[in-house]
Amino acid sequence: MRVESSFTIEAWDANGRAVGIETAAPLGGAFIIRAISGGDIEGRSEVLFAGAFNEKHGSGTYVAIDAFEGTIAGKSGTLAFWHANTVARGRPAAGGGLLHVVPDSGTGELAGVSGTGEIIARGDDHTLVLEIQFDDTDEVEIDGEVFAGEVEAGTSEPSA
Question: What is the value of pTM for the model shown?
Fold first, then answer.
C-alpha cells in the first residue's frame, strides 16, 4: 500500500564532531526531529544523520536512520527506516535515493511492516512516501549473533 505525508524539520542539532581526514566534501552529522502530518502518516521521528557535502560544486551524499512513532494508514506503533541520497552538481545522482523499512522493527499495530519508499524534497516542501506491506507471521528463527557476524563478514545467508 502506498502512503504519504508531508513533514517539517522541528529540530536540527549538528553534533559538532569532525573526522580527522579532510576531503573536498567535509563530513558532518546531526540529530533531527521531524513532524509528519497531513496525509496517511501522522507522527514524529527522531533521526541520526551523517553526510558529506562539497558546497563549491553542490555535490554530496547523506545516510540517515529514523525511529518513527505514530500512525500509518490508521495503524499505531513504532518502526525504523533508513534512507540515503546523493546529489551531483546540484542534480539528483543516477539511481536516486533509497529508503527501506528496517525488517522486524515495527511495534504495536505496525509489527510485521516492511517496505521501501522515498523522501521527496522540492524547495522547502518535504514528503515522506512509503510503499509498505504487513506480514504477521513470526515463524523464522535465526541466531542473531551468528547472523550479525555473517553480515559483517560479507555473507547474507544464515548458517544452519
Answer: 0.81
